[in-house]
Amino acid sequence: MLQAINTWEDYRAKLREFDAVLEHAKAVGAVMTGMVARSSHGRYGAQVFVKLLSHCIALRALAADTNRRSPRELLDVPSMSALARCVVEAHDAFEYVAGHNVTPAERTFRLQLWELHDQIRRLKMFTDLGWSPERLDDIRADVKRRQDDLQAHEFFARLPPELQAELRRRWAKGDPPAFHLGQRQRCELSGVNADWHNIITSQLAQYAHTLPSSVEQMTHLAPGSVEVHRLLAMPLVASLPFLVRVTQAIAAYMPANAPEPPSRTSRTMALWRQAAELAP
Fold first, then answer.
1. What is the pLDDT of residues 192-216, one digit of tens each?
2. Would you say 35 and 46 are in contact if contact means Cβ atoms under 8 Å apart?
3. Which pLDDT score, from 0 to 100, does residue 169 have?
4. Taken in order 277, 48, 87, 113, is the CA torsion positive or negative?
5. Angle between helices 40-62 and 104-128 (to 10 degrees)
6. Are 250 and 46 in contact (CB under 8 A)?
7. Higher confidence at residue 15 or residue 75?
8. CB 147 within 8 A of CB 164
9. Nearby residues of 9 by Cβ (< 8 Å), 6 or more positions away
């Protein structure tokens, strides 16, 4: 993806592609406003799409101004990388709770596990904040109810014994996972190349975190160099396949009035969707 970016004009071309996809995603989001989801996973899917879209809008606001004759400093790349990581995370959550084609039983199990993970994180946070024992007891009771429901769930009984044992161990530690499947398994269900996904998240993490190599690199890159153009584009290019995939998926929830992208944008979306499916 980045190999095609060598000049400032190449960067501007990729930014135009990002803008076209983003405008279509905004149009889909506008049509969704006021719609009532007919299922829990549909409601969560719509909320996660809006979250992902908001990340992409903020990411675009930080992108280098294409009206300039040359790029500005690279100081916004870490913030852009952090936002792009949020885009990846939102995509992965969307796929797990709303995107994958699974049975109703597995769907409810996934939602309940995801909610339990969140509730226990909230319990830990509120305990550290010193909430009153009465309020904490209410959350603990809710956590206990959710754990009991999951262990009695029909889908839990169908899981491999070793996975059941691992989930019970995590629940006993008060550390339930958000997902019962690993990243590679979820990528396979999504039709996303797992090695590509790992490369993207690793690249973004390198700049989202404050690490010596990335700090040094941004300080010493020559203005106008190929490396500068690629680094400026990297968070945008990394986010595009995920924005495309979730926009297309959420549009399928409203087939009657989902807006169609212009033909050129449709071709652009097809190319960026394919980028997530091919081996790196």
1. 999 999 999 999 999 999 999 888 8
2. yes
3. 96
4. negative
5. 60
6. yes
7. 15
8. no
9. none
| Token pair recorded at residue 77 | 């790349």
Tokens of 237: 């290019």
182 sits in the region (left: phi over 0; alpha: psi -120 to 50; else beta) called: beta
Q: 22-45: string of b/e by CB count within 10 Å (b at 16+)?
A: bebbebbbeebeeeebeeebbebb
The CA distance from 178 to 181, in Å, is 9
pLDDT digits (tens, 9 = 90+) for 237-256: 999 999 999 999 998 877 67
Per the CB < 8 A criterion, the answer to whether 23 and 15 are in contact is no
CA distances for 142 relative to 123, 136, 138, 164, 186, angstroms: 10, 10, 6, 21, 28
